[in-house]
Amino acid sequence: MPPENCPVSVTPARDIPTRGSAWGLEPSGLYLLDVAGPNPLDAIPFMAADLDRVEQELRTSATAADPYLTEIASHLIAAGGKRVRPGFCLAAAATAMSDDQPSTHAAVLGATAVELVHLGSLYHDDVMDEAVVRRQVDSVNARWDNLKAILAGDFLLARASELAASLGVEVAALLAATIGRLCEGQVLELNHSFDLTRSEDQYLRAINGKTASLLGSSCRIGGIVAGLDGEQTDALTAFGTSYGMAFQLVDDVLDLVATEADLGKPAGHDLEEGVYTLPVIVALASGHGEDLRALLGGPLDTASRDKAIDIVRDSDGIPTTIERARTFAASANDSLDALPDSPGVRGLRAAAAYLLAQVELAAA
């Protein structure tokens, strides 16, 4: 994917309806949410410099005694990324600060640990999905092979666990539990592959595990290393979890409206993998359901995939998903009411406001 500080415009893969159409989605406006525009966390004065410190720790953590393993483990770090999770960890820790100052070393290590978990999960995801592209470079499994990708992913998770252990028992236990939640969410999704009866509740539980849990834990670790009390740490966890739900909902819309160049992975990939996300679930329950069922439930060729996407776009699936995202984004912002004003709170509010503004732009 392109770096988050590099504005881009979207070139739709096919003719996508825009404002005044059936669902009023402007893909370029929605895509800004994912990768473009100024980083809203830059409202925190030292955020850019602190994220540079995280980059250095990531490179250090991916270094093994064997240069070959180092090359594989460092592959996606060098490819870049939005660094949303470490940014949230740093911002959460900054809620304990009454003035502008750099993050503590503990906060940087916590931010590094959550990003290593994210990276390790991507290595494993690409093996399961048989992906060939990640962040506009070859996926690890495509460049090397599945076995090496799995082992390198395990190595990154081990490094994350080392860092978490250095921050204390509570952080170590939380990160271990979060890795478990990621696995549970992924299994829930796999269990409903090509399932035409998948419900909205089953979908929401899966994305809570595979996406929202790590964002929630990123914020919680920031609160723990900053020494915040339980109520404030719980509020930060709720913020990250709600933000993560909204983020995944929007990402699932993007999979249906953006191009491969925009996404850094093939458009419509979820449909091809039999992962029926909320827009598809809503479409299946609508008047378009019969036509969609005739296509789904098994592997898709390119023509069938494109036809299925067109059917989903003509249904209420996109606007319904945007409405769910709007609700979660607003909930994330409300969670911060339990915290006093600080650079961190201002940064997190800016992120929530940016998310909500982009959701509203998409729905306009």
Count of runs of 4 or more consecutive helical residues:
18
Strand order of the largest sheet: 1-2
Query: Low-confidence parts, pLDDT < 50 over ≥5 residues?
Result: 1-36
**Class in CATH?**
Mainly Alpha
Instruction: Characterize the main sheet.
Output: 2 strands, antiparallel
SS elements, strand count: 2
Q: Which percent bin holds the helix content?
A: 55-70%
Written account of the structure:
- There is one protein chain.
- With 364 residues, this protein is mostly helical.
- The chain has a single domain (27-363), classed as Orthogonal Bundle (Farnesyl Diphosphate Synthase), CATH 1.10.600.
- The chain has 18 helices and two strands.
- The chain has helices at 27-35, 47-61, 67-73, 75-78, 84-94, 105-129, 140-143, 146-166, 169-191, 200-225, 230-257, 260-263, 269-272, 278-284, 289-293, 302-314, 317-335, 343-363, and strands spanning 133-134, 137-138.
- The chain has a two-stranded antiparallel ribbon.
- Helix 6 packs parallel to helix 9 and helix 14 (278-284) crosses helix 17 (317-335).
- The radius of gyration is 20 Å and the shape is globular.
- Residues 1-36 have low confidence and may be disordered.
